[in-house]
Amino acid sequence: MSDTRVEAVAPPLDSQGFLRWAWRQLTSMRVALILLFALAVASVPGSILPQRGNNPLLVDEWIDQQPILGPLLDRLGFFDVYGAPWFAAIYLLLFVSLIGCVLPRVGHHWKAMRTPPPIAPRNLDRMQAFSYETVDVAPADVSSHVSQELRRRGWRVRTGSDAAVDGDPGGIWVSAEKGYLRETGNLIFHLALVLILVAVAAGGLFGWRGNVIVKEGNGFSNTLTQYDAWGGGRLATADSIPPFSFTLDDFDVEFERSEAQRGAPRLFEARVAVQNEPGAGAREELIEVNSPISIAGAKVFLVGHGYAPSFIVRDSSGDVVFDDDVVFLPQDGNFTSTGVIKIPDSNPQLGFRGLFLPTSAIDDIRGPHSVFPDADDPSVFLSAWYGDLGLASGVPQSIYSLSTDEMEQIGLRALVPGQVWEFAQGEIEFTGWTRWSSFQIAFDPGKEAALVASVLAMLALTVSLFTRRRRIWLRARDDEQGSTLVGVAGLSKSEAGDVSEDVRAVQQIAADHIAGRKAAANETTSNDDRKSEQ
């Protein structure tokens, strides 16, 4: 006969079969882990590249500096990672995968917890750990005491008896199981991950955050036009922003003056007067680093500070065209700060680039710079220009940059408080300085749920890792000599588990009971002997 093998060819899947197969793949733990890793990788660009929701100006600057790579990354959504379609696709797939993976297991686990332990096997010597011992106590007595003691120690216990079958004498058995919390912890951990995803999604959809610089003595109202940078979720609108306000009454900062840590900040706090809504009474609040305040559900963080030099600018006719404080941005740890003044109302238009030095110094290597962050010896170096500021072109400009393409330079001058610089087109007076503080205001409706879910996930994972699920069986039957043969065996339901300790514990329970019975019997015999002698 010829050995002819015919390979069976599986019939092609219909649409329903393909969907069933795809669902099984998506809801498998392997795919869930892959998607979780993919989500972590997809989040990396959001922490490396600037994001439009947090700092749109920095995004535009990054794209301008990278004329080839920048526009490509922008089209792919790398500057708005958490709102990109590909990130949302990974996020939703992971969410569906976890739901489809965990919910059926919850039902199975609930059913398993309500199901009594299985019947003890007849051949205990096939288990991981087993032992046999002959005792002089009745089988029912041993099994009853062991089952009671195991229940007291937290085991789920089931008892029964077997009739003799095919030479097997049968006997009384005890089946005990422990460690269901392992699977419970595992399921709670995965359900907590689902809750974290829901919380993050709620924060991403309804949350918002913005940055604003407030000068000392000035106020802030929580409207979109007041923010220097604002980013909100897909469902966050201007109407959803609570109408609170606050005034920066005072900003205190102190710096270390000893040589060891000279210039390090020692005090960094802002005192504000807060109104929860228009017309409401004001309350005093103190904002410190890492100690935000809560206003109408939003958190107000103190994230930075700097100097705002004060200037008065007059045109060639002597009229005052500018009288205000100007925010200068610090460039180093000693608060060497740069800023721009634009005067569009003068004729001709005037512009100034400034360098503010809280504690002035100048040398041949670094030029003008500050040697200490506090305003011990303040001065400002100005570069003056006149001409067209380019504000009428319709192209938005940063308030921290000055376009001099259509302007001519007047000159350079260093000023100290109270000093005036006169030139043909007008004059500028440096009158002093004040401080400003930068605040980040954030509303994240999912952060509390995410925190609770994270703590719950850690606790559940700990329970799952340190709980061992195992089973213990005891069989007791009469042997041919009239004694009782007691067999104990165990089986671990987790990988690399060891039930030898549990088997020895059951043996010790039985041994202690037998020893107690013998001691009681001996005491009874001694009492009977003493009574007979009397």
Task: Summarize the helices and strands and which ones pair or pack.
Elements (H helix, E strand, L loop, with lengths): L14 H12 L2 H20 L7 H10 L3 H7 L9 H30 L14 E7 L3 H14 L3 E7 L8 E8 L2 H26 L1 E8 L3 E3 L7 E4 L12 E11 L9 E11 L7 E6 L4 E3 L2 E18 L4 E6 L3 E2 L6 E7 L5 E9 L2 E4 L3 E4 L8 E9 L19 E9 L3 E5 L2 E18 L3 H20 L3 E9 L5 E9 L7 H34 L1
Helix pairs in contact: 2-5, 3-4, 5-7, 6-9, 7-8
Describe the structure in your own words.
By secondary structure, the chain is an alpha+beta fold. It has three domains: 18-113, no CATH class; 120-179 and 471-520, TATA-Binding Protein (2-Layer Sandwich), CATH 3.30.310; 208-391 and 400-443, no CATH class. Helices cover 32% and strands 33% of the residues. The protein has nine helices and 23 strands. The chain has helices at 15-26, 29-48, 56-65, 69-75, 85-114, 139-152, 181-206, 447-466, 500-533, and strands at 129-135, 156-162, 171-178, 208-215, 219-221, 229-232, 245-255, 265-275, 283-288, 293-295, 298-315, 320-325, 329-330, 337-343, 349-357, 360-363, 367-370, 379-387, 407-415, 419-423, 426-443, 470-478, 484-492. Strands 4, 6, 10, 11, 12, 20 and 21 form a seven-stranded antiparallel sheet that branches. A hairpin with a 3-residue loop joins strand 16 and strand 17 (367-370). The N and C termini lie far apart (97 Å). The model has no long low-confidence stretch (mean pLDDT 86).
